[in-house]
Specification:
0% strand; 100 residues; mainly alpha; 58% helix; single chain
Length: 100
């Protein structure tokens, strides 16, 4: 399996965390779609099936990161709603994050 570079993973984690805050504050369809796109990319980049496990796996690969419980990587159930369809990412998911 190909592994994403730690810099890419760090950027994806930061984007997802920012979008999570924006979604809680705004909840707009655009923010939710971008959040789904980033969640999908995190899952693909870490070889996982849900965003929570992908975040743990990504943080585990980041230099200096500390993961509280590695057992989550093998025990977490797949959540179908956490990953956007691939077509969504291909249709222009590369735009910049909205200004905070």
């Amino acid at each position: 399996m190909l592994l994403a570079h730690p810099a890419v993973l760090r950027d994806l984690v930061e984007q997802y965390e920012t979008l999570r805050v924006l979604n809680a504050a705004d909840g707009s369809p655009e923010v939710r779609q971008r959040m789904d796109d980033v969640a999908y990319t995190l899952c693909v980049s870490t070889g996982t099936r849900d965003v929570d496990t992908a975040l743990i796996a990504a943080r585990h690969r980041l230099p200096g990161a500390r993961v509280e419980d590695d057992s989550v990587l093998s025990e977490a159930p797949a959540r179908g709603d956490a990953v956007a369809p691939i077509g969504a990412a291909e249709a222009g998911g590369g735009e910049a994050l909205p200004a905070a």
